[in-house]
Structure formats: structure tokens, C-alpha cells
Write a structure and sequence with these properties.
Rossmann fold; 14 helices; 397 residues; 9-stranded parallel β-sheet; single chain; alpha/beta
């Protein structure tokens, strides 16, 4: 049974954390699953091998997509590619789980939606399930995108919107909403792992920047001029409180410059943590005294573990997340005055870590329900489990 996980990667730690969440759920569901990933710059062959997955043969160059012709490759050749080189063609993928996180909407190029819609049509024609796992969706205002999605989205087995805004963006496109559901981000039940070197978390104010806060993708231009200063101000407040500000790079090379700028602007040198393992990233966040975070899954990792967290936003998904966890008062605004930031930090320091807070447990139950819904939908279209065991993942994970 070959299942492609789409939309994850190994650079952004949130995207990689979603991959681990899917891998864990699939392993608990069936033992005969071969996971398939698309190789690219952010998903290199070595990383695919490290999680015991197969590589998808991508017959695509820019807008030219020939994956629909993979059925024409003789089955004997396809079998040999899988056995000898761990390569799977689209013709042999039995289902797709799309865990893109935030890839479909006006903030991204139309070609991304064009590719998604083409795949939805192809998999529907082959009677193979295609599930969009909980993610931020929309808004959709470009007429060509709207038309394409109106035709393609009904072909999906399930569309799982991550919050109310995403649900409404999709609902506006569908006359029949029977395949549309709302479930929260599903990384909340993944357990983190704190490294041995992170021993003073309870005296740490963890700073998690995001380069998108000062990019053209952020429609609030005020952040471009205020972002650095606000992070520095919060760092200085942490120092005055007896905490040690530490920067965590949640993205890799993309966030390295903004991390360095914040570190250089503070009154004392700040340590920058570069950690490749997303489970360790979540563990570090979970052991910190408090977090100031601009990365969505960094915020999820804090909120789902009950760690006091101040968030910033470049997309509606942040506001909805903090509202769901009843922490909307801790969304930092670009136009906040010095006094308002001081008051917000004081309020943050009055909070205690509480992993058993009501919304946290409720959302973990919702994630468990989500996987039951997904696997029930897959069971309706996929053959019954075989007794085969995925030896590739068994050997390498």
C-alpha cells in the first residue's frame, strides 16, 4: 500500500513535525504502508531515506506535468524501480495525504492551485482517495482559482480546514459540503524530546522569529519597521525579569538573518539554537519558561503544551489559533506602544505552564477524532490490509 504524503519538508520544522505526526498515525493504523515523498531541495534523498520512505518519480518540469502518463510505464519496470531504487510512480500511489499546512490561497501563486486541481482530477479518475489534512486554506479571490477549485474540490475524499476562516473560505466554493470538515492542527499530540544540552529551560525566554513577518507576504507593512524593535524590547524585559533570552531558529537558512539581527541588537549576546530534529524543537519549546513566537507550529507547540506564549501574525491562521486556545490576549500588535508591550509581558509572566488546561485536552481529543475520520474515509476506497510489513521503514526508522 503506497501512500504519498504531500506538502511536508525537512527545512521548516513545522512542516517536518507534520510529517512525523502523519508517520506515527499511519504506523498505528496499518503495518503494510509504504510512505512516498516527493524529492526536492527541501526534501533531499538522504532525508527521505532517513524516515524510511520511498521517492516519488516526478515527471514534471515547471508547468509541464506528465505524471498522468505514468500508467504507460510497463508495470514490470515500475516494480523494478520500487524494489531496486525505492522509486514509486504516480500510477502506483494508492492514496494521497496532503499536509501542506498553508499553501493554497491568494498569498501564493495560482500555479500551486492549478497543480492541486489537476491531481484531484487524476486521482478521482483512478478512484483513489485524496485527503487534504488540516491546514489553512484561502482566501480565494482570483477568478481562475475559484473556477478551478469549484470543479476540483468536490473530487477530494476529505477537505479538512484547520480553523473557521479556512472552513468558510472553502465552503464558499462548494454547493455540496459533504466532504468538508473542520479539525485543529494535528501536531498537538506529537510528543517532543528535550535535548540534554537544554538544562535551564525554566529560566529561558525563547524567541522564535519568522522572516515572513517583514516580507511582502505580510500585508501589515508596519511590522517591517517595528518587528525587530519589539523582539528586542521583549528580550530586554526578559533580562530584567531574570530570564535568559535564547533564539530558536525554526526555519533554517530562511530565518537565519532575522535571528542574527535580533541577537545583534540586544544589550547582551544571545545564543541561537539551530536544531534539525523537529521533535527536539518541540521539546525545547515545551521546557521553556515562556515563548515569543512568530512561527505557526512553534506557537502550536507552546500552546498545546501549556507554555505561556506571545504570538505575532502575518496570516489569519495565527489569530484563529490563539482564539481557539483562548489566548487571543497574547497576540502582539505591530502598533503596540512601549507601555502596552510592558503590560503584555507582565501578564505573560503571571501565567504558569498548564498542559492540562481545558482547550489543550479538547483539541487533542479532536485530533484523535480527525484520524478516525481520515482512516474511515480511506478504508472505504482502499483494499483491506495485507499481512506484509513495510521493511523499508522498519529497517531505517
Amino acid at each position: 500500500m503506497n501512500i504519498e504524503i504531500r506538502g511536508t519538508q525537512f527545512v521548516n520544522k513545522g512542516a517536518e513535525l507534520m510529517l512525523h505526526a502523519v508517520l506515527q498515525a499511519l504506523a498505528e493504523w496499518r503495518s503494510d504502508i509504504n510512505v512516498v515523498l516527493r524529492p526536492n531541495r527541501q526534501t533531499p534523498y538522504a532525508c527521505i531515506a532517513n524516515v524510511g520512505a520511498y521517492k516519488k518519480l516526478m515527471l514534471q518540469k515547471g508547468p509541464l506535468n506528465l505524471n498522468r502518463f505514468s500508467d504507460l510505464i510497463p508495470q514490470s519496470w515500475r516494480k523494478q524501480m520500487a524494489q531496486q531504487w525505492g522509486i514509486i510512480t504516480e500510477a502506483d500511489i494508492d492514496a494521497v495525504l496532503d499536509a501542506s499546512g498553508f499553501a493554497y490561497g491568494d498569498q501564493w501563486p495560482s500555479r500551486v492551485i492549478t497543480q492541486l486541481c489537476a491531481e484531484l482530477h487524476r486521482f478521482d479518475q483512478r478512484n483513489k482517495p485524496y485527503v487534504l489534512l488540516p491546514q489553512a486554506l484561502g482566501a480565494f479571490t482570483r477568478p481562475t482559482d475559484v473556477h478551478a477549485l469549484q470543479r476540483a474540490l468536490p473530487k477530494a475524499s476529505l477537505i479538512l480546514a484547520r480553523e473557521a476562516s479556512s472552513y468558510n473560505h472553502v465552503a464558499e466554493l462548494l454547493s455540496d459540503q459533504s466532504n468538508l470538515r473542520q479539525f485543529p492542527d494535528f501536531t498537538n499530540i506529537v510528543k517532543g524530546r528535550c535535548p540534554d544540552y537544554f538544562t535551564d529551560g525554566k529560566s529561558t525566554l525563547l524567541l522564535v522569529p519568522n522572516n515572513k513577518m517583514v516580507s511582502s507576504q505580510n500585508s501589515n507593512n508596519l511590522w517591517a519597521t517595528r518587528y525587530l524593535n519589539l523582539f528586542v524590547q521583549l528580550s530586554e524585559l526578559g533580562i530584567a525579569e531574570g530570564l535568559t533570552p535564547v533564539i530558536l531558529n525554526h526555519e533554517g537558512a530562511g530565518d537565519a538573518p532575522i535571528c542574527a539581527d535580533i541577537a545583534a541588537a540586544c544589550s547582551q549576546p544571545l545564543k541561537i539554537i539551530e536544531e534539525n530534529d523537529p521533535l527536539v524543537v518541540k521539546g525545547i519549546i515545551g521546557q521553556s519558561r515562556a515563548v515569543v513566537c512568530s512561527r505557526f507550529h512553534g506557537c502550536v507547540s507552546a500552546l498545546s503544551q501549556g507554555v505561556p506564549c506571545i504570538g505575532t501574525s502575518w496570516s489569519f491562521k495565527y489569530e484563529r489559533l490563539f482564539e481557539e486556545y483562548e489566548q487571543q490576549k497574547f497576540m502582539l500588535q505591530a502598533d503596540s506602544s512601549v507601555a502596552e508591550v510592558n503590560a503584555l509581558f507582565t501578564h505573560l509572566m503571571a501565567q504558569q505552564t498548564d498542559p492540562d488546561r481545558g482547550p489543550i485536552l479538547a483539541f487533542k481529543r479532536r485530533t484523535e477524532q480527525m484520524w478516525q475520520t481520515v482512516f474511515s474515509a480511506l478504508d472505504q476506497q482502499l483494499p483491506a490490509p495485507s499481512h506484509a510489513v513495510n521493511t523499508r521503514r522498519t529497517q531505517t526508522v
